[in-house]
């Protein structure tokens, strides 16, 4: 039965295509925009170390779990749980995932829109003569204005929609394959410039020299949430992509490669940004504008900065695109397989829905900024709820599902496809998904929400 379903569904055409698509999903605004800014907000190195711990102990095993669930079920995230655990409430984990996808793409498209605007600003040479303060004013003016950020957001959503309509093999895979490596090269160039600025060492200290007394419960929860966000976990993106991976592929290796690539790129983004933040006297905790304010200052200071700034924001937009298509694909696969809608129609429907919510996110930066809940505007609220609640909750259920419901034997069967399973590694994996990941998520979660307090 799996065979029939497989031939009717999309499949990635090569091993490199699988990695490029999965890494393309993981590497995005999360690494380059969000990671530096929340690391700044939560005080630097201590936050980073907690984040790295979560990546290794929770992120990696949950990623392997998602890929396994996807390939085993050959289904969208809702259908996956329905297939593997028929007649049980597990399918609601899939619903949670679809809801998270809608929320994340709504604000993600807004930030990606900012990135497109910065391509235009880079071309029209707006950065060349501005001081850090002026750079900040320019950013704030732009995101608060009611029209142009919305138009750029809609443009970005249209681009996302176009690629998803073309389909997995010709759309997603083809674009991801050659653009990601280019992005890495340019970030490395930025790092080299940033660490050689006067006063750069303070930034490296901030990023790598931890002061654990600065950690808060909220910071730890955010580190967990961001580990999920950055690796594209907890909502079924990698269940969906896993369902397109063929049985010759070693998904354990894929999970490891994607996790390493994602983490290295976040670290590189940190190394590109914090030395410059300190060198230019920018406040590290200045929030969502951090990258957009800091990097244009770096470009000013480098030979060929004009050219690099255009290329950088162009590639940031592309990195956002390889992530946004993976988020949209979660919703589209669900619409197609569960509601029996055609790919084109599903894609258009999902895009319109998400774009409308996204418009409110964008406006909540400016004209609607008075409307807040728990002190957060609509944009921050969607970001916070999806990353810090829905994704960890999804991750909790996914690890419980694999650890307790599927269990060692079925997982061994799945992981043995295209690979030879190393028994002790399998034991470590099962231990992590059975106990460590769910336990840690539950504790961080309840602690972060203030349900209990370790003092
Ligand atoms: N991982 C992406 C990033 O870091 O930009 C964002 C993302 C993609 C989050 C897919 C969640 C997801 F399912």
From TrEMBL:
Keyword DNA-binding among record annotations: no
User: Which molecular function GO terms apply here?
Assistant: symporter activity
Q: Which InterPro entries match?
A: Na/ntran_symport (IPR000175), SNS_sf (IPR037272), YocR/YhdH-like (IPR047218)
Q: Where in the cell is it found?
A: Membrane
Q: How does it sit in the membrane?
A: Multi-pass membrane protein
Any single Pfam family the record assigns to this protein? SNF
Q: Does the keyword GTP-binding apply?
A: no
Family designation: Belongs to the sodium:neurotransmitter symporter (SNF) (TC 2.A.22) family.
Q: Which PANTHER family match?
A: TRANSPORTER (PTHR42948)
- The protein in question is named Transporter
